[in-house]
Write a structure and sequence with these properties.
Largest sheet: none
Structural class: mainly alpha
Order of helices and strands: HHHHHH
């Protein structure tokens, strides 16, 4: 239930969810299976698109904001390999 709310409502990436579960001392294999299942149901691409669209609604597409978006997605727990192509597809000025 906790994992579901972190992914579905807060739309966090795998890294952030994993760090939130560390204090609960859960079995790493169990956590890995639960995360795999959750991210099969909620695509990482959809989660990334939500954060990117939300960011770009309030910010202009400048190189300075490109770095800010990069940092935002890292803080949200996404790996660079997951969002690299999405950021590079945007036309930055």
């Amino acid at each position: 239930m906790f994992i579901k709310s972190l992914v579905k409502e807060k739309r966090l990436g795998r890294r952030a969810v994993n760090y939130k579960l560390i204090p609960h001392n859960l079995d790493k294999n169990l956590v890995s299976k639960l995360l795999d299942n959750m991210y099969d149901q909620h695509s990482v691409k959809v989660l990334l698109d939500h954060h990117i669209k939300k960011f770009l609604n309030t910010k202009e597409k400048s190189n300075k904001n490109k770095l800010k978006l990069y940092n935002l997605l890292k803080r949200k727990g996404f790996y660079y390999s997951e969002f690299e192509s999405s950021i590079n597809d945007i036309e930055w000025t």
